[in-house]
Structure prediction request, 972 residues.
Amino acid sequence: MADADHDTPTGRDYRDTVFLPETPFPMRGGLPQKEPLILEQWGDLYGALRKQRQSEGAPLYVLHDGPPYANGDIHIGHALNKTLKDFVVRSRFLLGYDVDYVPGWDCHGLPIEWKIEEQFRAKGRRKDEVSKDEFRAACREYAGKYIDLQRDQFKRLGITGDFANRYATMDYASEAAIVAEFHKFKNSGQLYRGSKPVMWSPVERTALADAEIEYHDHVSPTIWVKFPVTGASDDHEDDLLSFRASTPSIVIWTTTPWTIPANRAISYGPEISYGLYEVTAMEEGLEFEPWAKPGDRLIVADKLAEDVFKAAKIAAWTRVYQINPSGLECAHPLAALDSGYGFSVPLLAGDHVTDDAGTGFVHTAPGHGADDFEVWKAHGHHEVPDTVDPDGAYYPSVPLFAGLKVLETEGKKTGKFGPANGAVMEKLIEAGNLLARGRLEHSYPHSWRSKAPVIFRNTPQWFIRMDEPLKSGDTLRETALQAIDDTAFHPAGGRNRIRSMVEGRPDWLVSRQRAWGTPLAMYIDKQTGQPLHDPEVDARIVAAVAKGGADVWFTAPDSDFLGTHDVSRYEKVEDILDVWFDSGSTHAFTLDPRTAEHGYTGDRPAHWPADLYLEGSDQHRGWFQSSLLEGCGTRGRAPFKAVLTHGFTLDEKGEKMSKSKGNTTDPLTIIKESGADILRLWVALVDYSEDQRIGKQILQTTVDAYRKLRNTVRYLLGALAGFDEAERLPYADMPPLEKFILHRLHELDGQVRAAYDEYRFQDVVRPVLEFCSSDLSALYFDVRKDSLYCDRSDSIRRRAARTVMDEVFARLTAWLAPLTPFTMEEAWTTRYPDGGSNCARVIPQTPAEWENADEAQRWAKVQTVLEVVNEALEAARRDKVIGGALDAWPVVTGPADAFAAFDGLDAAEVFRTSGAELVHGGEAVTVEVRLADYPKCARSWRKVPDVGSDPDYPELSARDADAVRFLDAQGA
Prediction:
């Protein structure tokens, strides 16, 4: 054992001769204070990057922004979405592209209308007391306020883009372009006016498209209703309507009692087996008297008879015979109460009818259901009754129920059932035709804005045809499906999702009965009912909107647009366009005008189609689809080459975020408390293609990962203090460990480039984190610490280490620049104050000679032995045999092939011990931890035999004595 004199050197203080890391780059990020300063330094970073790349002749890449809604502060969904887009923009700049990205905002639509209605109500004014001009002006001002607010919040997040030339759907030029795109559909014959049931929101008083619908659990009343049979064709049994037996009734089941007044038919399935049943006994001991009674004769599907009778409390029955519903006629169940229901109700064959649930018959109200409408029309019926007004109340002409509301549209009960359902059920009881009733919880369509239930309601609306041949000969549906096949999807499953939606979607409903939006700016010939096709009229409309905004359509006299046409002959359409048509047209005014094909020669070039559209997975039925249909309908293809989708952000428990639950995570709070780079790193770490989770614990994990990255960069900066090109060592002179680290850089370089190219940001940050943790911190930095601190400044080993660390720094700061741009900018400018912005760099080219599979194999074997040695050293430390690794001189025994990898290496250096012996023997690697029984070097603290071998420096090892002599000579 070394004696006390060996362990405690005395004499000169050698601390000032050790090359300890030096850097002003702090350990703590201080991001909330530092990031705003960096944003100031960047200035118009995006403009500078485009200018630089264009001067370099870089290829163009276009990311088209899906517009967020200009309403409120940004939330975590905004932060995820915009950060992913920023990853794309910055990584494409990093890969050497000139990147076109113009942030935009969706401004029209109901959410803003509601806010403005609230503001006017607070002043004691109802919407109908406010002129459309004043109302639209208030909406425009409101949207403009939140565009400015969200823009500043996005910038604080580090989002880079052409904010100076941002687009908004409410800009005059945008509205004009949207009108021009609408005119293309009008003039190509794809547009038509149809009266059919559409999803209608009584709360919002407008039609809604599929993309504006979301499904929630909802409890509805259910009723089984009897329709008395009043007529039958000759092929039915003679006694069917015999006076000897009670009149048979067909039984229907529905979850919408309020639609019974609109009933005009009953649909049946031609392949379903039906029976005529007679009730023989009712259940006994009930607390109420059932509406059925012995002797009643009911017609239902055989498969469902038992379920129906159970609901009606029927205890016993007899199947009289099989019956074919074809040729039967019924009375309306309310006919006995009002002559307004005295019409005949026919039986119609329909493929939509099943015997999976209900009664096997479908109550058919053609004004309130898509299937109902289609089967009614298919059987030659044309008149569709209007029973419910825009507020969801029965029209005055509806017998028994005039004015009653289906849904409440005002006050605290908004969205709840109105009195209509109850009133209909009471009248059915009075008429003796309610067989049973109940309640059902089921998935029901709701407006995604108001969260209130919607109804199907027959209204005249404007549609774009999905199945009318275009100039190409293909229909819009066929063209869109081909475009989907031609598009790259990330993840790939998105293709099937949007494809199935487009395959089954109805015609595109594009009209809305609201005030704030882009109008369907066209005239209808009152004599023909068809839109006016006049290029000069269209041109005047578009020019006027471009000059004065869409408001001009509602304020200017018709003669300003119609010119020589007879004004009295034409009807102005004042409906507004579906907001999805607005946003689906954004490519037309954001990209098209800046393409070479349109003669653009400025410094903001774009191309069409865009390289990428990126939004949440819900946009398969929203913006992706409306853009797809708009592009295919006007240009014959999609306006994008690729589509990337991300999931939704949930809380730490995997639950949907809700203010009422108190489980939301505010991105602005994260930025204020921890910094934008922390939020950005969280985005980089998650698998964005699936739903992600966020919360305090998850963010703490992100902070820990950030510290690893920051500490790695900080160590590199400290170790590289004073490094210059004269110190750089050629690859051929590199020791094996340096060649291994350069191989890892070569390997990672390929992985990072491929991951960025394929938008796999998680596959950038996770391998880089692992590299920092395992290859650098746990191996390279630890092994080379002694050389960096104590070797002569001109030694091969130290020069090699600093050369490699320079290469590592150059790549880490580039690879991570798109993900944590503030921190990498701080690191880069700390080392190179006059080196320009780190964001302007491209990934350094990696020499092919760095690829070295042999060194990779060698160090894999070395690390296998190293793990065993480290475990033994840790055990010896726990047992207080040694204080630290430099107290040890391990003897490692094992088979020869286990040590072959150590040829040319200093085992003690690899083990971070003062010395080591490798002994061949045995089948497994074993370690005996012996003490280093030599004096302790006063400078490096290694305990080695040559301490004191240099008489000028008796307290140092030979290596350290040489290093100090070199330093002393330089200082002399």
Remarks:
- The radius of gyration is 39 Å.
- The CA atoms of residues 235 and 327 lie 8 Å apart.
